[in-house]
Amino acid sequence: DAMETLDQKLRTVIGQLANSARTSKIISINAALLAEQLQHGRAQNTAALSVVAAEIQRLSDESSDGIAALHVILDEVKLLTQTINLAGRQRMLSQKIMKLFLLQRVGGAFDTNAELLQLIESFQQGLDGLKHCELNTPEIAAQLERTDEVWRSFLTALRSTNIAAASALNERVLQEMH
Questions:
Q1: Rounded-to-5 percentages of helix, strand, coil across the chain
Q2: CA triplet 60, 16, 65: central angle to 5 degrees?
Q3: How many beta carbons lie within 10 A of that of residue 95, not counting itself?
Q4: Could you read off the pLDDT of 98-151 as tens digits, one per residue?
Q5: Distance between terminal CA atoms of the chain?
Q6: Are the C-beta atoms of 29 and 82 separated by less than 8 Å?
Q7: What's the pTM?
Q8: Do 15 and 61 touch, CB atoms closer than 8 A?
Q9: Cβ 51 vs Cβ 33: under 8 Å
């Protein structure tokens, strides 16, 4: 939805700028004709030149507004991209946490505990960051709350060393983060 909204905003601003460009071209042709008439002393009414100048100023203002709008949209695209990347990183962290947990329990790799704790902390920080994103809609906020609940259950399963429950909950974390 956010990408479609940004796409529509971009298309609207681009349409406005294209319209301004077409109108500017017509006005520039009129201005050139008026200038030619003035140069040869055939101009009967210089009021037309004032109209052309005012229209050029209006189009210039519209173009400036359009460019400012494009900057705002590009900032939104950047934030959305960062948010999507963070959500993808969260999925990767969840998988890595599960992998290290399994290595500890099945393979006896107990030296991974510090890394596991660091990954858990990173996931929690990322989830908190996502929950406070300014692009969140009520639906996204609700989805992130569900993710947080599943995440807490996943941590509980990890602490109780319940491999089957942790594995199932890890899958749910991945689904919720999608």
A1: 90, 0, 10
A2: 45
A3: 14
A4: 988 888 877 766 566 888 899 999 999 999 999 998 888 899 899 999 999 999
A5: 14
A6: no
A7: 0.65
A8: no
A9: no
Q: Are 168 and 156 in contact (CB under 8 A)?
A: no
Task: Find the angle CA(68)-CA(69)-CA(75) to the nearest 5 degrees.
Answer: 95
* Among 28-37, 54-63, 105-114, 131-140, the least confident range: 105-114
CB 169 within 8 A of CB 154: yes
Secondary structure (3-state) at 164: helix
Beta strands in 12-153 (DSSP E): none
Distance CA 152, CA 128 (A): 13
Query: CA 67, CA 56: separation in Å to the nearest integer?
Result: 16
What lies within 8 Å, CB to CB, of 89 at 6+ separation is 126
Task: Using alpha carbons, select from 65, 33, 63 the residue that is nearest to residue 51.
Answer: 33
146 C-beta neighbours (distance < 10 Å), count:
13
For residue 43 the two structure tokens come to: 């101009």
CA–CA separation, 83 and 87 (whole Å): 6
Q: Return phi, psi of residue 85, to 5°.
A: -65, -40
Q: What values do phi and psi take at 5, rounded to 5?
A: -65, -45
